Amino acid sequence: MEKEHVKCLIVGSGPAGYTAAIYAGRANLNPVLYAGLQLGGQLTTTTEVENFPGYPQGIAGPELMEDLRKQAERFGADMRYGVVTAFNCAQAPYEVTIDEEKVITADTVIIATGAAAKYLGVEDEKKYAGMGVSACATCDGFFYRKKVVAVVGGGDTACEEAVYLAGLASKVYLIVRKPYLRASKIMQERVLNHEKIEVLFEHNAVGLYGDNGVEGVHLVKRLGEADESRYDVAIDGFFLAIGHKPNSDVFKPWVDTDEIGYILTEGATPRTKTPGVFAAGDVADPHYRQAITAAASGCKAAIEAERYLSEKGLIG
Ligand code: NDP
Questions:
Q1: Strands, E assignment, 12-153
Q2: How far is the CA of 140 from the centre of ligand 1 (A)?
Q3: Which of 240, 256, 289 delimits the end of a domain?
Q4: 156 CB under 6 A from ligand 1?
Q5: For 132-184, what is each residue's pLDDT tens digit?
Q6: 140, 156, 236, 282: which one is catalytic?
Q7: How many other CB atoms are there within 10 angstroms of residue 234's CB atom?
Q8: Atom of ligand 1 at shortest distance to CA of 118?
Q9: Residue 316 falls within a domain, yes or no?
Q10: CATH number at residue 298
Q11: Domain with 14 in it
């Protein structure tokens, strides 16, 4: 297998990875960044980002990520396509396998692999994958112009996706399992005041039906209660927005995780249990999960990497 040595390897191309690359580049660490499956990370699947400081009018998610990438490249970060398929820290430098075909030895590794969309786990999601089931409204919403869709979830993502889809579709059902929304107040108001969105509180989607792709959803109201009721609603598209699973599996056992898979770090630092291996962004953050907090932790990880390399005498 082809081998290459790098001082600072960054895995992931969301706000955490790119910010780590900006800082590591400016510290002359010659960072190499592997983008992972989703170039630009989760923000490339969102529409308008209105809460990233510095953009008073908001900015489109993909545009923000493109700007961060260019900024990192300006300071010499080496951007590459590829996915980490194996990780071994038995001895330093650490071995990181890319796409099962290339091994990088790295003095420091910054894990910024983010998180992936969760599914409900009902069989029909697989059956109708690509035929009416999606976990990304901005990717697939276009196909549902003037059609009826359902979004599952009650958080900010679900509300954002419902509002986005309401701009395209004729009707949007928001399926929420609790009697309230978890989303921020501003997003709740947008959803509740939108004439095309109907919120179905205390509802669970338990299956889908249709001969040619999704034609409807099986719903249960007040699941498990004495007054539980079941009925079907005709829809053309079914969008999941029920949270995310951190992309940490390949890095175990060299990092510890919580029961969901979020990487555990030392206090407020990005240090993992393996010296020289740092975790930044959503892969290590079950609490905030914002672009700005991810960017901040990427910055911390790059500063930690520089200190580690300096203490080990690996940089001048
Ligand atoms: P959240 O974890 O905040 O919300 C997930 C939602 O899905 C909850 O309503 C949850 O219900 C529901 N859910 C989870 N599992 C199931 C299930 N099996 N069946 C039915 N419903 C389910 O995830 P989000 O992706 O919405 O947000 C993640 C973070 O990112 C949050 O901190 C959010 O604020 C932030 N965010 C910010 C944005 C912005 O500021 N522009 C945009 C998008 C996200 P329950 O409440 O019952 O647990």
A1: 32-34, 48-49, 59-60, 78-80, 84-88, 94-98, 102-111, 115-117, 133-134, 148-152
A2: 19
A3: 240
A4: yes
A5: 999 888 778 988 999 999 999 999 989 999 999 999 999 999 999 999 999 99
A6: 140
A7: 13
A8: 15
A9: no
A10: 3.50.50.60
A11: 2-116+244-311
